[in-house]
Amino acid sequence: MNISMYQASVPPIVRSLNNLITILEKGDRYAIAKKIESSILINSRLYPDMHPLSKQVQIASDVTRRGVARLAGLEAPSMVDNEQTFAELIDRTKQTITYLETIAPEQIDGSEARTIVLPMGKESITLQGMPYLNVFILPNLYFHVTTTYNILRHSGVELGKIDFLGKP
After folding, report:
1. In terms of pTM, does the model score above 0.85?
2. How far is 71 from 86, CA to CA, in rounded Å?
3. Fold of 5-165
4. Residue 117 and residue 98: Cα distance in Å, rounded?
5. Nearest-angstrom CA–CA distance, 10 and 138
6. CB 3.0 to 4.6 Å from 51: which of 3, 55, 93, 152, for a disulfide?
């Protein structure tokens, strides 16, 4: 049995983004319960040269929204990176999911060999669809969701592996 490009992309991305929402909701509840200003957690980072939690969520949203759009041969809707609360980060993630759910399987299936030109600063790289999904979109998504998880876990939020993986 073959797996389609749609099956390999949209469902696991949506699942990870839903899990990210769960992680953010737990962070929000923790801040409220411990009477911690939520901006402290939202601006936290694992190391000084890393992005804060807010940027981790924004990048997870951007890389998946733009990535799936490129696979479908579309232009992704833009989002302004101005979220400052857990509610705003959760809303952004939900908007990303809503957009991804508008993409039909037939828009992505067959994109394995589609040429994707990916802007990288002043340069760009060119990949075919399958490597773009497997070596850029999915690893970036998992990195930024994991980093969000780690920032909150390091800050004391009670998170477990099931929060990252989601319930089966």
Report:
1. yes
2. 30
3. Four Helix Bundle (Hemerythrin (Met), subunit A) (1.20.120)
4. 25
5. 10
6. 55
Tell me phi and psi for residue 144, to 5 degrees. Answer: -75, -35
User: Where do the structural domains in the chain lie, given as residue ranges?
Assistant: 5-165
Nearest to 117 by CA among 73, 77, 158, 84: 73
Tokens linked to 25: 């909701």
Closest by Cα among 81, 56, 12, 85 to 154: 56
| Ordered per-residue pLDDT tens for the chain, 168 residues | 689 999 999 999 999 999 999 999 999 999 999 999 999 999 999 999 999 999 999 999 999 999 999 999 999 999 999 999 999 999 999 999 999 999 999 999 999 999 999 988 999 999 999 999 999 999 999 999 999 999 999 999 999 999 999 988
